[in-house]
Amino acid sequence: MTKLTLGTHPFLLGFEQLERLVEHTAKTGNDGYPPYNIEQTSERSYRITLAVAGFRDDELSITVEDRQLVIRGRQAEDATQRTYLYRGIAARQFQRSFVLADKVEVTGASMENGLLHIDLSRAKPESVLQRIEISKGVS
Description:
mainly beta; Immunoglobulin-like; three-stranded antiparallel β-sheet; single chain; 7 strands
């Protein structure tokens, strides 16, 4: 018996890239930092919120690379010599990525009380009707 995967199912033509994206996402390790929420704010819009306490705006970058939303954070080195009795607040860099579907775009980003909000919207799909003519076969 042959095992059918998403990219090889006979009714799903052209979805091989989706299968590769799912495999890539599964392989990309996720340590849970920083924590985040994803909420649907309307029928066609979403908001991703990351907890980035301790990061300034200039220490964060948001890019879209090949349909992947990538958020990176890197805190500047502390120039002062401090002696910590206990250090429970980590000052570490991070990278968090999200795969965006076709026609999903980043519409804005904002920082508020240590939370980074990234707003996304999905364009309304266009209805397309294409008529295919059947040509006469030559024998």
